[in-house]
Amino acid sequence: MSTANVSRRDFIKQISTGSAGLLMLEPFLRIRETFTSALAAVPSQPQTAEDFIQLRRYYSLADDVIYFNHGSIGTIPKPVQKAHEQYLRVCESNPWLYMWGGEWEEPREEVRRKAAAVLHCQPDEVAITHNTTEAFNLLAQGLPLGPGDEVLFSSINHPGASICWFHHARKHGYTVRRFDFPMARAAKLTEDELLDLYDRQISSKTRVLVFPYLDNMIGVRHPVHKLAKLAKAKGVRYVAVDGAQAVGMLPVSLKPSAVDVFATSPHKWLQAPKGIGLLFVRKSIQSEIHPMWVTWGQERWKGTARIFEDYGTRNMPELLALGDAIAFNMRIAAEKREARLRHLWQFFRQRVLAHPKLEWRSPQHWPISASLYAVEVKGQKSTDVARLLFEKEGFVMRPFATSELNTLRITPNVFCAEEEMERFFAAIDRYF
Ligand SMILES: Cc1ncc(COP(=O)(O)O)c(C=O)c1O
After folding, report:
1. Is the Cβ atom of 318 under 6 angstroms away from ligand 1?
2. Domains of the chain (ranges, CATH numbers)
3. pTM value?
4. Measured CA distances, 309 to 130, 299, 302, 320 (Å)
C-alpha cells in the first residue's frame, strides 16, 4: 500500500484514539474522502504532450497568464486548494480543539510519511518546518562550530541559505568563505568541472559545505551525491543541500547518500500552500544540532527530526494540505515528469540557440541543467523586457539584473505548452 494513499479504514486502524477522537477526526476524514475522489478524476501518468497540457485545467491560473515562474512560487492544484480551504473551515469551527487535540498527531504523521516517501528517507529524519531559510538558520546557529571551522559555499548559493551563516559566524567564532561561481561560463560547464570547482575550494578547515541541488538563477543542477561523497572524502563534517528548487521537479533520493541535511520549500514545485517547509536531517547527526526553538516535546521527540519543529501553535490547514499536494504530485512518476520537463527544455533551448537576439546562459547538458533556465535578450535590460512581456502578453518570468546576469529566468512546469513557448519567441520578434 502506498503511504500516499491510505484508505479511511486503514487510517482509522492506525490511529490509537478513543471514540471521542474519532468523532473529532470525522470532518477530516470527510475532507480526505472528497479529496481522494477529486484526485481520482485527475488523469494520472500522462503519455502525450497533449495529456500534460490538459492538466492545466486543474489549476487556477488566469487564462491570460503564461506562467513560466514556477521557480518563484508554484500554483496549487484545485483539488488541493479545496482540501486546504476545508481544513481551514474545520479548524476555525473550534480553533482550540483542532489546534492542540492529540488526535491530529496521526494526520500530521501521515504527512511526514508522505514527505519521507518523496525524499526517500525515514519519517524520523523529516522535520516539518516553514521554509528553506528556516532550515539554514537552524544549522547556522545550531551546528557545533567554533574558531578554526569554516563554512564554505559559492556565490550561486541563495541568500536564504547564505546570509544566516555570516550572521551567526560572529557569535560562534567560525568563518564563512564564499567563492565565486563561474556564472559567465555556465553554458560551457560539465559535471566534471563542477566537481573540480568544489574540490579545489574545499580546504582542511572546511567543516560545512553548502550547495544548492539547483540554484535559483541559472539552474545549475549539482551532482549532489558525488559532490557530497567528494566532500566527505576530503574531511568535511557536514554536507547541507538547499533543495528548494528540486523537490517536486526532479527525482530526489536521500537514501544512498553522504548528504547530512536537505531542505526544501514545497510551495514551489510540490505546489503546496505557502508557509510550510521540509527538512531532512540524517539520523546520525540529529543529536549534534541544537534546536533553534525549544519548548515541550524535546524529550518526547528525542532521536527524531521532530525536535527541530515548531510544535506549538502551528499552521495546521497548510500542513495537512501539504500531504494532499504530495499525493497530487505523485500522480506523475518522477521520471516521467523529468522527461516532460527535459523535452520542454530542449524545445526552448534549441529555439534560443537559433535566435540571433537571444543568448542561452544556463548549462547545455540536461544532467546538470533542469526546468530552470536563463536567457538574455541581447542589448535589452532584463527588467524592462520582463515588464513589457507581462504587460503586453501576460508572460510571468523572473528577471535577474546583477553584475553578472541580465537574464530572464524561465521555469515551466509539465503542463506548460510548446505553443506558449512559441508565443515567447514571436513576442521577442515583435518587440525587440
Ligand atoms: C534555491 C533557493 N533556495 C532558497 C530559497 C528560499 O526559499 P524560502 O523563501 O521558501 O525559504 C529559494 C527561494 O526562491 C531558492 O530558490
Report:
1. no
2. 334-431 (3.90.1150.10)
3. 0.94
4. 9, 13, 12, 15
